Structures are given as structure tokens and as C-alpha cells.
């Protein structure tokens, strides 16, 4: 059962659900066409509760990236879509067809779905301090793309990252030590002529940017599955930085 039929069966079997869905449709979209990535792709008209397989499969990686950019624009301009999470939950319960997988930091100020104004079911979300890629995360992303059909891997770092500061400072603490060791190559690789300490916000952000680019390179180098999908044009692997001040997701690659 795809998401369309899931919606239809809900409509026909539960008046409450039907009213909810109708209200969502009429209130936010009018009776309009459903376009690719639905609400992520459209800020003005069509609003669907979830991506269908046909919609997701019909998109190119570049179209998915454009939709993610448009979602961030809605978020930072203060005009996010009016989410009906209960309807989104119902529309995705029988199946998911996410268009992207986002690898981002655990920082509480950088919740990917919110800052990209996404719906339930739009994207897989992998979060780890410092947005690095280890074997388990590579496996998760291979599942997301090769098995579940996502078209884009978005690595998203952010400004003022505590994990990056910890790597710069050489913090050692339990299991955190090994995680920060995976960020340290970005510290030494960052070309920066000013003060190279965690007290210097500009340096911290430059290291975070280097770390994103290194993660993108590591994904390609360490995963033959993902590198092959990208070579075949089926996915794109891109890096980005989320700016805590201003709310912009800056695409780096
Ligand atoms: Zn962080």
C-alpha cells in the first residue's frame, strides 16, 4: 500500500481523519496538484501530507537539493508550512519514501527537519556529534540510498559546534575521545592564519567547514556502494553549513 492509498483508506474509513485531511488540504493548499517533494518543494500552493513513491522516484538529486534549499528559505524567513503532524503520521504509517538522508550534529540548535521545514517521512536523519561518518553511519546511509531510494546525502555541519571546539582543545573524556579523534584531521587541515583556538569563533567555523568537506570525501572513499550510486547519477553527496545566527543552510558543494 502506498501513501496515496493509505490516505484514501483513512479518508473512507474514518470521518475524523477525513475531516482532518480535508481541512489540511483546503486550508493550506486549495485543491491543487501534488508536486515533487510536495510541501518541501512548494511554498505557495500544493501541500501533501507525505511523499509518495512515484513523487520521490520522479525527482532528480538536483531537484531534491533545490527542495531542501526552499525548505530552509521558508524556515529562515519565518514562513514555514503549517504542519499537520497527525495527518503526516497517518499518511506515512504504511510506508516511507524519503528523498534525502541528512547527516548532521546532535546540537540541540540544529534540528534538521525543522530548519529545512520538512515533514514526517521526507528525510532520513542521522545525527552524531561533529557530523562524522563511521562504519555504522555509512551502513545507515547505504540503507537509506541503496535500499530505500533516497536521492541525496546532505552532510550538515554548523557554526559554534561544541564537538569541533572539543577537537581543537584535545578534550579527552570516555568514549568522546575516540569521536573527537575523527574530527581532529579537520583541525590540522584547516588553513587559517589567525588565532587557532576554540576561543576564536571564526577559526572554529572554518574547522567545522573543513570537517564537513572531509566527511563528504570520507563517505565517497569509504563506501563503494554510495560512491557507485553517485557515479551512476542516482544520488548526490553534498556538504553544507547551518548558521545558528540567521538560520541559513549554506551549501558548500
Ligand atoms: Zn555540533
pLDDT < 50 stretches: 1-36, 41-46
Radius of gyration: 19 Å
Based on Cα principal axes, name the global outline: globular
Helix content: 40-55%
Strand proportion: 5-15%
Distance between the termini: 37 Å
What's the order of the H and E elements? HHHHHHEHEHEHHHHHEE
Q: Mean of the pLDDT scores?
A: 86
Bound molecules: zinc ion
Task: Please summarize the sheet with the most strands.
Answer: 5 strands, mixed
Please list the strands of the largest sheet in the order they lie side by side: 2-1-3-4-5
Number of strands: 5
Tally of individual helices: 13
Please state the structural category: alpha/beta
Note the topology.
Layout: H1 3-13, H2 15-28, H3 38-41, H4 53-57, H5 61-76, H6 85-92, E1 100-104, H7 112-115, E2 123-127, H8 135-147, E3 152-158, H9 162-169, H10 176-181, H11 184-189, H12 201-222, H13 224-231, E4 236-242, E5 249-251
Parallel strand pairs: 1-2, 1-3, 3-4
Antiparallel strand pairs: 4-5
Helix pairs in contact: 1-2
The structure holds zinc ion (ZN).
Characteristics of this structure?
alpha/beta; five-stranded mixed β-sheet; 13 helices; 49% helix; binds zinc ion
Amino acid at each position: 500500500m502506498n501513501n496515496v492509498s493509505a490516505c484514501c483508506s483513512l479518508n473512507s474509513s474514518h470521518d475524523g481523519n477525513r475531516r482532518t485531511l480535508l481541512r489540511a488540504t483546503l486550508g493550506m493548499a486549495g485543491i491543487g496538484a501534488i508536486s515533487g517533494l510536495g510541501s518541501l518543494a512548494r511554498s505557495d500552493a500544493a501541500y501533501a501530507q507525505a511523499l509518495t513513491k512515484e513523487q520521490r522516484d520522479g525527482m532528480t538529486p538536483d531537484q531534491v537539493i533545490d527542495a531542501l534549499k526552499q525548505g530552509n528559505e521558508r524556515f529562515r524567513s519565518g514562513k514555514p508550512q503549517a504542519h499537520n503532524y497527525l495527518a503526516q503520521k497517518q499518511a506515512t504509517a504504511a510506508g516511507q519514501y524519503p528523498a534525502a538522508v541528512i547527516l548532521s550534529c546532535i546540537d540541540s540548535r540544529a534540528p534538521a527537519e525543522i530548519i529545512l521545514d520538512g515533514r514526517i517521512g521526507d528525510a532520513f536523519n542521522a545525527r552524531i556529534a561533529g557530523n562524522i561518518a563511521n562504519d555504522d553511519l555509512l551502513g545507515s546511509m547505504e540503507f537509506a540510498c541503496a535500499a530505500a531510494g533516497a536521492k541525496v546525502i546532505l552532510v550538515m555541519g554548523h557554526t559554534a559546534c561544541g564537538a569541533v571546539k572539543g577537537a581543537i582543545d584535545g578534550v579527552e573524556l570516555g568514549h568522546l575521545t575516540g569521536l573527537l579523534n575523527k574530527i581532529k584531521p579537520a583541525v590540522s587541515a584547516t588553513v587559517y592564519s589567525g588565532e587557532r583556538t576554540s576561543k576564536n569563533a571564526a577559526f572554529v567555523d572554518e574547522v567545522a567547514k573543513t570537517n564537513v568537506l572531509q566527511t563528504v570525501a570520507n563517505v565517497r572513499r569509504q563506501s563503494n556502494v554510495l560512491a557507485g550510486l553517485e557515479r551512476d547519477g542516482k544520488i548526490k553527496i553534498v556538504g553544507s553549513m547551518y548558521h545558528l545566527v540567521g538560520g541559513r543552510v549554506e551549501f558548500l558543494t
